[in-house]
Amino acid sequence: MRRRLLAVLLVLMGAATLLLCVPLADAYARGRTEHLLLQRRSEAVRFADLAERMRTGADRSELAAEIGRYAQLYGAAVTVVDTAGRTVARAGATAPLEASAGSGPVPAAAVDARRRALTGRSTDRLPTIRPWGPDSVVLAEPVGRDERVSGAVLMALPTGAARRDVTVRWALIAAGALTAFAAAALVAVGIARWLLRPVRDLDRAVEGLAAGSLQARAVSDTGPPELRRLRRHFNTMAQAVADSMGRQRDFVADASHQLRNPLATLVLQMENVEPYISPGPGLTEHTRALDEAERLEELLDGLLALARVESGTAELKEQDVARAVRERTAAWSPVFRAAGLALAAGGALPEGLVVRALPDAVGRVLDALLDNAVKFVPPGGSVEVRVSRTADGDAVVRVSDDGPGVPEDQLPLLLRRFARAPEHQNVRGSGLGLAIAEEIARAGGGCLIASGNAPHGLALELRLPLV
Fold it and tell me: How far is CA 202 from CA 3, 21, 217, 228, 240, in A?
C-alpha cells in the first residue's frame, strides 16, 4: 500500500511539475524570440530608411558599407531588393535570400517575408527559437510606406546566441524542477509514513489477534485523527473479545475442575460397592455405570487440558524435534507391542531441527497421534513415524498407519472437538485428543493436517516452523 500511495503522489507531483515547467520554458523561448525580433527589427528599419533616401552612388555605397559591417559583426545576411525583386545591395552569405546562379532555390521563409514586405507589412512574428532550432530566421522590412513602397530589406539572422540563452535557461528550469520534485518526493515519503504507520501497526495487531495472541494491541498513536480513533476502537474491541474468551475458558476450566472431585469420589464409591453386589444383571449394570463414570472423568481431563492450551499463558520454548520423537516412540513401543501393532521410525531422524512452541509440544502432540493410532488401527497393523524438513523451513512429524483409514469427506471432522465417526462411537476416549493437539500446534505457529495414506490408512502431520 505504501508503494501504491507513493506512486500516486509522485505521479501527481510529476504532472504538476511538468505543467508548471513546460509553460514556463515555452514562455521564455517565446520571450527570447520576441527580444531578437525587436532587437534586429530596429536595424532593419534603419537600413530601410537608408535605402529609401538612396539617390546617388554615394548613398548606395553608404548603404552597402552599413549592411556589410552589420553582416560581419552579427554573421547575418542582409539583402535589399526593389519592388521587382531585383537585388539593390547585399552583404553576408549565411543563407540565400534571393535567387542567383548556383545558389539554389530561395527558402520559403524568405519568399514569404519578401512578399509581405513588398506589400508594406513588416515581419511581426518569428518562429519560436528553441535549443534544437531553427538555425536562422528571416526578417523583412518594407522600404517606404503604404503605396510608396519601393523595395524591401531582407535579413537572415543566425540564432546561435538566442538558442544558447534558451538552452541555459531551460537547463536552470529543469534543475529547479528536479530539485523541487526531489523535495516534494521527500515530503511525500514522510506523509506516506505518517499516514501508513498506524495502518501497519493495526495490521500487525490484527495478524496477532488472528493467530491467537489475545494480548495483541495497536500501539501507534500517530497519523490522522480518523486512524487514531480507529486504533482506539480496535483496542477496545480486542479487549472485549479477549475478556469474553477468557471468561468462557475460565468457566470451562472451573467447571471441569469443580466436577472432577465429586466425580472422582463417585468412581471411588462405586468401586468400593462392587464387592457387595451379587453376580447377575445388577453387577453388569454396575460395571457399565463405572465405565461411563471413568469416561466422563477422561472427558473432564480433556476439557481441562484444552482450556489450559487455549489460554495461551504458557511461554514458548525451543525444543529438538528428533529428540522428542525418539523419546516418545521409545515410550510407546511397549504399548504398541501389547496391542499387537508395529511401531517404527521411517528413515534416519534428521538432527538439528529446533522449533519454538509450547513446552514439550512435539511430545504432547505425538502422544495424541500415537494414542489415536493404538485405538483405531486393528491388531497386526503397523504405524510409521517420519521426521522431515520442508523447503519452506518447517519441521514435519508424520504419523501414518495402514489401518482402515477415514473417508475423505470425514477428514476435516477429525480435528473437531468430540468428533467421532459413526463406526467408532464405542471406542474409548473423549474425542478431544486431536483437537487438543491442533491447538498445541497452532499456539506454536504451526498446524496439524489429516490426510489419507496410500494404499489405505490415515496420515497425520504436525508442522512447526523451525527456529
Answer: 18, 41, 8, 10, 17
Q: Collect all residues with Cβ–Cβ distance below 8 Å to 313 and sequence separation of at least 6.
A: none
Please count the other Cβ atoms lying within 10 Å of the Cβ belonging to residue 272. 9
**Per-residue pLDDT tens listing for the chain (467 residues):** 677 877 888 888 888 888 888 899 999 999 999 998 888 888 888 888 888 887 777 878 888 888 888 888 888 888 888 887 788 888 876 445 554 434 445 567 778 888 888 888 888 888 888 888 788 888 888 888 767 888 888 888 888 888 899 999 999 999 988 998 889 888 888 888 888 888 888 888 888 877 767 778 888 777 788 888 888 888 888 888 888 877 877 776 676 667 777 777 777 888 787 787 778 777 778 777 877 777 677 766 666 666 666 665 567 788 888 888 888 888 888 888 888 888 888 777 788 888 888 788 888 888 888 888 888 888 888 988 988 888 888 889 989 888 888 888 777 777 776 666 555 545 555 567 788 888 888 877 888 888 888 888 888 888 988 88
| CA–CA dist 245, 256 (Å, integer) | 16
Cβ atoms of 89 and 153 within 8 Å: the answer is no
CA dist 395 and 322 (Å) reads 10
Longest pairwise C-alpha distance within the chain: 162
Taking CA 389 as the corner, what is the angle to CA 408 and CA 319, rounded to the nearest 5 degrees?
A: 105
Task: Report the predicted TM-score, pTM, of the whole model to 2 decimal places.
Answer: 0.51
First to last CA, the chain: 30
Indicate the helix (H) or strand (E) that contains 15: helix 2-52
